[in-house]
Amino acid sequence: MALPDCQTLILQRRDHALFATLNRPQSRNAMNQLMLQELMAVFDAIETDLGIRAVVLAGAGGHFCAGGDVKDMAAAHSHAAGGDSEAFYKLNRAFGHLISRVGRAPQVVIAALQGAVMGGGFGLACVSDMAVADQSARFAMPETSLGIPPAQIAPFVVSRIGLTQARRLALLGLRIGAEEAVQLGIVHEVVAGDDTLAAAVDRALQQVKRCAPQANRVTKALLLDSQRRELESLLDEAAAAFARAVVGPEGREGTRAFVEKRRAGWET
């Protein structure tokens, strides 16, 4: 599997994980259109790669992501003035496509958060499977204070923390710290310092390694489908997936490893 060449991302493969670091530190890793395109290309490239079982999203320079790049808004103004009536629609909708794409990735997505976690960066955090935050992390949906709605990230925030808390954060334009973020369920763990953040990510990756790759993919799809599928048909499909897994290579190996009191093959 060949990863795409990227200008705004640092990509590093480590064992069963791909580390994707947002790398525009001069703008607190604000997402421009190029970064959106490159992130989409990365997740498309690894879609079927069973060797990559986790993706770690992080930011360079002490920040995760400060949201969208204001320079793109200026460019959209120029395009709109030139007659492109959908310039702002296309600019905004691209964020939603990316966040949705990351959210449905078959890999375990781990967000390592520090500094600014705002706007689109907040949206990415809300679609991660596990989020770890340094005490420096600050979370916000600042859009309403700028005269615009958090149009693409709002549904993902509601899914993460519920409507009541999403209303409070969005309609008051609040900024909250890491401790409140963990209380709300935005993040799962708060740590102190870069070394501790890295250690927490490593612990999570070791846990991922204990889980069978294909079983994890099926399980994640089942969990996501539980929010939008009719229950009985979903349970029918889940039973069929279970039956295939039991007699499949992972199911057979897992059973043998349990009986033989050893680690399963996917843990090595």
Please, could you describe this protein's structure?
The model has no long low-confidence stretch (mean pLDDT 94). This protein folds into 2 domains: 9-209, 2-enoyl-CoA Hydratase, Chain A, domain 1 (Alpha-Beta Complex); 213-267, Orthogonal Bundle (Lyase 2-enoyl-coa Hydratase, Chain  A, domain 2). The protein has helices spanning 33-45, 70-81, 87-103, 120-126, 154-161, 163-172, 178-184, 194-209, 213-225, 231-247, 249-259; strands at residues 9-14, 17-22, 54-59, 108-113, 116-118, 130-134, 138-140, 175-177, 189-191. With 268 residues, it is of the alpha/beta class. It is globular. The strands form 2 sheets. A 6-stranded mixed sheet has the order 1-2-3-4-6-9, with helices on both faces.
Can you tag this structure with a few keywords?
6-stranded mixed beta sheet, single chain, alpha/beta, 268 residues, 3-stranded mixed beta sheet, 2-enoyl-CoA Hydratase, Chain A, domain 1, Lyase 2-enoyl-coa Hydratase, Chain  A, domain 2
